[in-house]
């Protein structure tokens, strides 16, 4: 078992111990039949998630997406998450068609401000920063261990950045740990997207209208299945180190492109598995 898997076991045990008595003795406990009824109504998704193995999502590169959105891309969805997404589609045919943006794993870090547009020279500088910071990310043995995905949340959000939430309901995965690497189809998809930025005319895609700060922070009600990045101090060290590298990346962008980017709050950073509504 890898170091990150062992760290997960310790952190998971600590989490359970810490939250064992959070509800307090003063609260009235629901009758058993009420609990059974609630579990029955909401059992389909919780059963699916509880049968999904804990897995690892490995950071791959800092990347400039279309409309200039800066992201942390991952190497690909691991097999456990691919199966989860496939089962969701199979069992719930009424779900909307999956958005292209959630077919490759990424965390959106920030967006161009509403009044700004990248020019070709600024894009060149941004791509250079991405290349240099990606080299540091991949060379960092701690950060490259990645995130242990041991749960997912159904998020009802008031804005697309998830900085304003109506609710965040987490459900745990199984205790089994599957450290399998992403398969070829997943890594090839990520490679194709990364390669787009090397095209001479990529500036047209990176500077086009849309997906500015307002797109992410203005009112927009929706529901998504997501994994929140555990960047706060006290979590697994690998995750904390990724958070430090994200902050270094933001500082470099701010220094070379002052006033260009609006950065999303650390507490809102996430990986979208799939939109629900």
Structure, described:
The protein is an alpha+beta fold and 277 residues long. The chain has one domain (44-275). The chain has nine helices and eleven strands. It has a four-stranded antiparallel beta sheet. It is globular, with a radius of gyration of 20 Å. Residues 6-40 have low confidence and may be disordered.
Q: Quick one: biggest sheet?
A: 4 strands, antiparallel
Q: What is the number of helical segments per DSSP (H or I, 4+ residues)?
A: 9
Q: How would you classify the quaternary structure?
A: single chain
Broad shape: globular
Write down the Rg: 20 Å
Which structural class do you get from the secondary structure elements?
Answer: alpha+beta
Would you list the SSEs in sequence order as H and E?
HHHEEEHEHEEEEHHHEHEE
**Low-confidence region ranges:** 6-40
Query: What's the pLDDT, averaged over the residues?
Result: 89
Strand order of the largest sheet: 2-3-4-10
Number of beta strands: 11
Descriptive tags:
alpha+beta, 277 residues
Give the helix/strand layout:
Elements (H helix, E strand, L loop, with lengths): L2 H16 L13 H10 L1 H8 L3 E4 L1 E6 L5 E5 L4 H13 L14 E7 L7 H20 L7 E3 L1 E7 L7 E8 L4 E2 L5 H13 L5 H5 L6 H5 L4 E7 L8 H20 L4 E3 L6 E6 L2
């Amino acid at each position: 078992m890898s170091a990150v898997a062992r760290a997960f076991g310790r952190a998971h045990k600590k989490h359970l111990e810490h939250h064992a008595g959070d509800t307090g003795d003063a609260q009235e406990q629901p009758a058993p039949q009420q609990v059974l009824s609630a579990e029955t109504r909401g059992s389909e998704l919780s059963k699916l998630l509880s049968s999904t193995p804990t897995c690892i999502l490995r950071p791959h590169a800092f990347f400039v997406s279309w409309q200039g959105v800066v992201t942390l891309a991952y190497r690909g969805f691991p097999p456990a998450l691919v199966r989860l997404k496939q089962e969701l589609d199979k069992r719930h045919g009424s779900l909307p068609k999956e958005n292209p943006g959630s077919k490759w794993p990424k965390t959106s870090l920030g967006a161009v401000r509403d009044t700004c547009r990248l020019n070709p020279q600024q894009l060149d500088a941004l791509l250079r920063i991405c290349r240099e910071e990606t080299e540091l990310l991949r060379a960092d043995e701690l950060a490259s261990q990645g995130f242990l995905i041991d749960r997912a949340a159904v998020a009802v959000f008031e804005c697309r950045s998830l900085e304003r939430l109506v609710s965040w309901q987490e459900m745990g995965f199984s205790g089994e740990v599957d450290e399998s690497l992403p398969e070829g189809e997943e890594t090839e998809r990520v490679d194709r997207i990364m390669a787009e930025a090397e095209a001479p005319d990529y500036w047209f895609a990176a500077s086009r209208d849309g997906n500015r700060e307002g797109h992410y922070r203005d009112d927009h009600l929706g529901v998504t299945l997501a994994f929140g990045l555990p960047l706060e101090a006290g979590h697994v060290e690998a995750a904390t180190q990724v958070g430090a590298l994200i902050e270094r990346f933001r500082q470099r962008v701010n220094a070379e492109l002052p006033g260009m980017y609006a950065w999303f709050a650390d507490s809102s950073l996430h990986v979208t598995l799939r939109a629900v509504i």
